Structures are given as C-alpha cells and as structure tokens.
C-alpha cells in the first residue's frame, strides 16, 4: 500500500506504508519514571506531544486526583537549578536526545499542613517524598 503526497508544481511523491510506520516509531520515546515508592514505570509517548500528556499518563497510572502538588523532575539534569517537565511545551524540546529518558515523580509544591490534602493517597505520596528527602539528607 502506498500513500501519495503532492509536491509543488504538480509533482507527486509516493511513500510506502512501511516507511510511514518506521517514521512513526521514531517519534515515540520511552520515559522511565522513578516513582516515590522506588519503582520504575516506563511510559511511551510521542516526542511531539506536550508534557501534559506524559504527566496525565503518570497521574492515571498512580490514580492521583490531586495533581497540582506533583510534577516530573528531570533526573539526568546536571545543572544546579532543578528542572521540571513543563506541561505546556513539547517533550522533544525538554528532553535531551536518546531514549529512554529518566524522570523522577516528586512533590513539586509542599503544603504547610498535610492534613489539608483531601485524598489519603495524596498524603501517602507526600509522606514518601518527605521520607526520601530525610533519608537522602535534603
């Protein structure tokens, strides 16, 4: 099966379906997300998607409803300031070349009183973050 693309000046270019499938595979990247319970979960996303797509996949996997407090921290970032995955930018602009990419699921915004959190599971994730920070000396 072939697909036809029209080029300027009336010329056409035929592309085989296998070539189209191969190009689609190249646009997919694997992101290994290190979760707060010390497990690693791989997610496949299109590198042209916004960061929100990956965030939504992680939140869906964790079944988190209170999403405002959490984010994905770029794990292999060598700079002094922490970099977070921006939900409004394409993934390809934020991650360096090469797959798989490594990200840490972390608490992005801390609240003064964890009892103000609505969901028990959100408090549990919050507790895991604080535990990790204490054990690592942060």
UniProtKB/TrEMBL annotation:
<dbReference type="GO" id="GO:0031032">
    <property type="term" value="P:actomyosin structure organization"/>
</dbReference>
<protein>
    <submittedName>
        <fullName>Tyrosine-protein phosphatase non-receptor type 4-like</fullName>
    </submittedName>
</protein>
<dbReference type="InterPro" id="IPR029071">
    <property type="entry name" value="Ubiquitin-like_domsf"/>
</dbReference>
<feature type="domain" description="FERM">
    <location>
        <begin position="29"/>
        <end position="138"/>
    </location>
</feature>
<dbReference type="GO" id="GO:0005856">
    <property type="term" value="C:cytoskeleton"/>
</dbReference>
<dbReference type="InterPro" id="IPR035963">
    <property type="entry name" value="FERM_2"/>
</dbReference>
<dbReference type="InterPro" id="IPR019747">
    <property type="entry name" value="FERM_CS"/>
</dbReference>
<dbReference type="InterPro" id="IPR018979">
    <property type="entry name" value="FERM_N"/>
</dbReference>
<dbReference type="Pfam" id="PF09379">
    <property type="entry name" value="FERM_N"/>
</dbReference>
<dbReference type="InterPro" id="IPR019748">
    <property type="entry name" value="FERM_central"/>
</dbReference>
<dbReference type="InterPro" id="IPR000299">
    <property type="entry name" value="FERM_domain"/>
</dbReference>
């Amino acid at each position: 099966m072939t697909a036809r693309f029209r080029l300027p000046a009336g010329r056409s270019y035929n592309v085989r379906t296998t070539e189209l499938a191969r190009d689609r595979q190249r646009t997919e990247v694997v992101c290994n997300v290190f979760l707060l319970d010390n497990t690693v979960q791989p997610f496949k996303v299109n590198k042209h998607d916004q960061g929100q797509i990956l965030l939504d996949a992680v939140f869906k996997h964790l079944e988190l409803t209170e999403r405002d407090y959490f984010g994905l921290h770029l794990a292999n970032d060598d700079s002094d300031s922490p970099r977070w995955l921006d939900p409004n930018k394409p993934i390809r602009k934020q991650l360096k070349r090469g797959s798989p990419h490594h990200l840490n699921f972390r608490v992005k915004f801390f609240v003064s009183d964890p009892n103000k959190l609505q969901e028990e599971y959100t408090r549990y994730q919050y507790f895991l973050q604080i535990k990790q920070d204490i054990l690592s000396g942060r």
